[in-house]
Amino acid sequence: MLLVLALVTVGVFLIVRLVPGDPAQMVLGLKARPEQIADMHRRLGLDQPLWRQFTSFIATLLTTGDTGLSIAYNASSRALVLSRMPVSLWLIGCSAVLVVAISLPLAMTAALHKDGWVDQLVRIVPTITLGMPEFWVGLVFVLLFAVTLKIFPVGGVQPGIDGMLYSMALPSLTIALAQTPFIVRSLRTRILEVLGSDFVVTLRAAHLPERVIRRHVLRNALLPALQLYGMKISFLVGGTLVVEQVFGLPGVGSLLFNAITARDFPLIQAIAIYCALGVVLVSVVVEIAGGLIDYRVRGAAVGGRNRAAAGEWNSAAARGAL
Amino acid sequence: MLSHYSLRLRVLEHRLPHTLIAGLALLAAIVLAAIIIPAVSPYDPIAEDIPSMLQPPSFAHPFGTDQLGRDLLVRVAAAGRVDLALMVGVELLPFLIGTCAGLVAGYYGGWPDRIITLLSDALIAFPFYLLVAVVAFVTGTGITGIFLTFLIMGWIIFARTVKGATASLAGAEWVDSARVMGFSDASILFRQLLPNVLSQAVIVLVSDMVALLVAIVTLGYLGLGVRPPTPDWGTMIADGQSFLATRWWVSTLPGAAVVLVGIALALIGDGLNDMRRRA
Amino acid sequence: MKKTSTIRAIRTALTAATAAVLAISLAACSQTGGSTTSATGASASGDQTTFTYARSAAVSSLNLWTEITSNNAFAIDKIFEPLVSFDKNGKIIDWLAKSHQISDDGLTYTFTLRDGLKFSNGKNVTAEDAVFSLQQHQAEKDAALPLTADIASVTAPDEHTVEIKLNSPYTPLLAELANFSNGIVPKDFGGKSEADFFANPVGTGPFVVSKWDKSGDLTFTKNENYWQKGKPGISKLVYKLVEDGTQAVNQLKTGQVDGIEDPALENLDELENGNDTKVETAGSWVTHTFFFNTADEHFADVHVRRALAYALNRADVTKAVSFGHADTAKTVLPKAIEYSTQDSIKPVDNDLAKAKEEIAQSKYPDGFEAKILLASGNNAYSQAAQLLQSAAAKVGVKLDIDSVDIATFRSRFKAFDYQIMINSAQADYPDADSIIDFQADPDGFSKSYWTSYSNPEVTAELKKAQVTPDGDERADLYEKIQQTLADEVPYIPLYSPQIVKALRKNVNGLEVLPNNSVRFQDVTLG
């Protein structure tokens, strides 16, 4: 885990300096004179050789926990990231809750009515949102629910916790719609497999109380979906840019995009490090949760295919970020 | 010893799931439209015609026209050629690399597995948009950038899927006995294991394509998509998004094309998955 | 029977999940009941005198000398004010000075301050403050809009008089002084350090900073000591960061904001005809332009440049991207700048026969291949580039569009690493020299806007125009320069968009300025 963080830190440092573009040109505007630009390079230390920049970057990071003054915003990078963090955390949190709230009932209903019309509906309808880009869904939501029906705010964040929830309704629904199809399908498939598996039959033959059997079915079905869910959330960390833009939310995603556009090296590094930290945390939490479930299911494995099935719908999780 | 079913064999053994048939039919219809419409249409997808800019759908222009007066029907179809080809082309290499990496990691475990896991973990922890942007900055926006970005990120999915599947088979008795019988590692990997895990990888491939298509569209929205004047659904949707309230057709109709492809591929994936479970 | 129990278990879970959904929707609904005003009501807090202005970039610095980008400039000009300013039409008007005089030899500028001028902290404004400000600006080595005149001295003969003496005449000086960068700050920053001062600035402007998030919103409150009595009419001004253009339009429609600084041209018809929205316009100092790298072997040939200009139909470009809110540009100077010959010049434009003649006379009668450098993410530029591409194809020139991100774009064209690019040409202050010097002087650092275009005759004329007093002689010089630039086509001016502000219908008194800024002091919300 530490190795991952180190890799990301070093990787980002090198990569942002290797791409073309100059932060001074972006901050000073189109008509900046060469002297102004040289002066700014000196102040930022960009005239130093790469290894010098790197050692001083690492030194600052280890001593202050900050990556330095943001070039574009003229403020502490860490402070900027922290000030944008709450909105992103709320967005990710609300979306995560919504995904569960939508997927679980849908998958179960479908599994219970296998091949019935409800099942067909649950299998087909989500595929429609699958092909819809988030920005487009978001725009339509804004036009429909905010501009025409005036039920929700167009965008931005309202004050207070209730205001925050109110502002998060449309954006988190937009994200949830893009993610649920994968989770629903994974869950449905698993519930069906578990219901039809030998071990459920065995448990029943052993006349175990239904309560116990139920728990086993759910746990078995949840494990792969949980891994997929964790991966989806990892991608949301720092990956909510599009939804933030469409709904005018001041989150980390749009800060990152601005930082990239302006070649704001210290800020890009700060965001990348915090996001990597977030991703690592998410995977630790998922591992622990998975471990808890797994510990209780162990000994009641459903067969070799299950583990493989876990990865099955991970596929577009990677793209889920977009 | 399990016999290694190939996808083709199973198709022969079982009745095709109706979702698969529906998906394939829909995809075939889309591909046909993309091939035929630009060939027979009187309009050029690239030539501008300013006087007829932004016309709503009509008999002459069933999908309306865009900002430069170009017929949207022929552009949506021409963009289909570009995007469908791009979708398949961009997926191919990550699929091959990821499958091989997954086989190796799953079969050998140990340090090859650790390296591949570390690499994929680091890439996932790396903010996705940063990667997208960095690649676009180096290559300029356009197809090369899209190709590279998804090469860097795309293999992970296949590697993880195939690794899981391979690992669960590698411990099986028949693999052990194959080893005892003197089969080489390469032979076990590619002759024995690969055919067994391939079906899963293919299912992932199909569902990943939808996500890829949506990703390419989103790049267009961010201004990092296919270069003009090449017609592309993403750029068309992005160019039209500011007209959504007033001239809905400019972005909605290309958007509908993406949704249709999404449905077709999802149905195919669903059908393939059904087949795998039945087998 | 066994199965039904499992089903029951699943149902229990289902009920739990449904309850969760309900809880969330309830939370959302109760909220809906509570604060519908913020979604539909007038302005943000219901306070009738708050004006919320949607802007696409945050304010990162308020240092009037080192900043130039519009996100900062148009916050700075609400806090600091110069001696002279300009009106809606770009005409110079007295501002903190009640009058000004220029000596006949053009060497002495005398300004008389208004009576009763106060800084926002209540202290009186004296000529010493003005002298300090201008000297501080001259001394600033990172000045973004430096005073380019050869200034001998800036003095305060008395408490109300400021005198600037020059070593040689320089006609654009008065217009340069109208820049926000020549605003007046208290002498010695009122005893603070420069950094502390600009973190919490004190000026004569109508507004005072009250809350400032460098990556978000900036809130101003009204300056109680403002010299224009009874103004400003609003008590609070919020610069709200709304990065996405469509989002801003929708916030305006629902009243979450009262105005948009940079509405996209394609949204204007919708906002003009909206029930609750309107637009205000002014002429601009901007011309969107194709630039040729004349150091490139192909575009060094004047016939090639003329061929492309003749092949292109600029009116089409204007029509495709401006939705009726731009003038097709015929010359390098926009119409809102004095001495523009927009109405009389003969441009090289839209004549395919002549385009073919020109290419035949060039070194490349059979055409060639080249690239248009384009900053990605700008829809209008992308459309314009596609139109040039098809125009060029008609004379056998195959153009590819090389679309790169904005930072790469800047680095590349500033390193002369391009063949054709599209960019905006903008005057900083209302004088023809602001554009001509930047775009036609090969000795300046911009090397004729990175075209490397050089014509000694033009250079001599533009230098002469800098020292010629305003009048017919100066007009003649600029007429000649504009015609030469039109004939030799180092760039193709495409269109000058109007400055447009989108507003709620109840907003009155907003003054739109040609540099894309606005004045809020007369604003009232009806």
UniProtKB/TrEMBL annotation, chain A:
<keyword id="KW-0812">Transmembrane</keyword>
<dbReference type="InterPro" id="IPR000515">
    <property type="entry name" value="MetI-like"/>
</dbReference>
<keyword id="KW-1133">Transmembrane helix</keyword>
<comment type="similarity">
    <text>Belongs to the binding-protein-dependent transport system permease family.</text>
</comment>
<feature type="transmembrane region" description="Helical">
    <location>
        <begin position="267"/>
        <end position="289"/>
    </location>
</feature>
<dbReference type="InterPro" id="IPR045621">
    <property type="entry name" value="BPD_transp_1_N"/>
</dbReference>
<feature type="transmembrane region" description="Helical">
    <location>
        <begin position="133"/>
        <end position="152"/>
    </location>
</feature>
<dbReference type="Pfam" id="PF00528">
    <property type="entry name" value="BPD_transp_1"/>
</dbReference>
<dbReference type="GO" id="GO:0055085">
    <property type="term" value="P:transmembrane transport"/>
</dbReference>
<dbReference type="Pfam" id="PF19300">
    <property type="entry name" value="BPD_transp_1_N"/>
</dbReference>
<feature type="transmembrane region" description="Helical">
    <location>
        <begin position="87"/>
        <end position="112"/>
    </location>
</feature>
<keyword id="KW-0472">Membrane</keyword>
<feature type="domain" description="ABC transmembrane type-1">
    <location>
        <begin position="85"/>
        <end position="286"/>
    </location>
</feature>
<dbReference type="GO" id="GO:0005886">
    <property type="term" value="C:plasma membrane"/>
</dbReference>
<dbReference type="InterPro" id="IPR035906">
    <property type="entry name" value="MetI-like_sf"/>
</dbReference>
From TrEMBL, chain B:
<dbReference type="InterPro" id="IPR025966">
    <property type="entry name" value="OppC_N"/>
</dbReference>
<dbReference type="InterPro" id="IPR050366">
    <property type="entry name" value="BP-dependent_transpt_permease"/>
</dbReference>
<feature type="transmembrane region" description="Helical">
    <location>
        <begin position="20"/>
        <end position="40"/>
    </location>
</feature>
<keyword id="KW-1003">Cell membrane</keyword>
<dbReference type="InterPro" id="IPR035906">
    <property type="entry name" value="MetI-like_sf"/>
</dbReference>
<keyword id="KW-1133">Transmembrane helix</keyword>
<keyword id="KW-0812">Transmembrane</keyword>
<dbReference type="GO" id="GO:0005886">
    <property type="term" value="C:plasma membrane"/>
</dbReference>
<dbReference type="InterPro" id="IPR000515">
    <property type="entry name" value="MetI-like"/>
</dbReference>
<dbReference type="GO" id="GO:0055085">
    <property type="term" value="P:transmembrane transport"/>
</dbReference>
<feature type="domain" description="ABC transmembrane type-1">
    <location>
        <begin position="80"/>
        <end position="269"/>
    </location>
</feature>
<dbReference type="Pfam" id="PF00528">
    <property type="entry name" value="BPD_transp_1"/>
</dbReference>
<dbReference type="Pfam" id="PF12911">
    <property type="entry name" value="OppC_N"/>
</dbReference>
<keyword id="KW-0472">Membrane</keyword>
<protein>
    <submittedName>
        <fullName>Peptide ABC transporter permease</fullName>
    </submittedName>
</protein>
From TrEMBL, chain C:
<dbReference type="GO" id="GO:0042597">
    <property type="term" value="C:periplasmic space"/>
</dbReference>
<feature type="domain" description="Solute-binding protein family 5">
    <location>
        <begin position="92"/>
        <end position="443"/>
    </location>
</feature>
<comment type="similarity">
    <text>Belongs to the bacterial solute-binding protein 5 family.</text>
</comment>
<dbReference type="GO" id="GO:0015833">
    <property type="term" value="P:peptide transport"/>
</dbReference>
<dbReference type="InterPro" id="IPR023765">
    <property type="entry name" value="SBP_5_CS"/>
</dbReference>
<feature type="signal peptide">
    <location>
        <begin position="1"/>
        <end position="30"/>
    </location>
</feature>
<dbReference type="Pfam" id="PF00496">
    <property type="entry name" value="SBP_bac_5"/>
</dbReference>
<dbReference type="InterPro" id="IPR039424">
    <property type="entry name" value="SBP_5"/>
</dbReference>
<protein>
    <submittedName>
        <fullName>Dipeptide ABC transporter periplasmic protein</fullName>
    </submittedName>
</protein>
<keyword id="KW-0732">Signal</keyword>
<dbReference type="GO" id="GO:0043190">
    <property type="term" value="C:ATP-binding cassette (ABC) transporter complex"/>
</dbReference>
<dbReference type="GO" id="GO:1904680">
    <property type="term" value="F:peptide transmembrane transporter activity"/>
</dbReference>
<keyword id="KW-0813">Transport</keyword>
<dbReference type="InterPro" id="IPR000914">
    <property type="entry name" value="SBP_5_dom"/>
</dbReference>
<dbReference type="InterPro" id="IPR030678">
    <property type="entry name" value="Peptide/Ni-bd"/>
</dbReference>
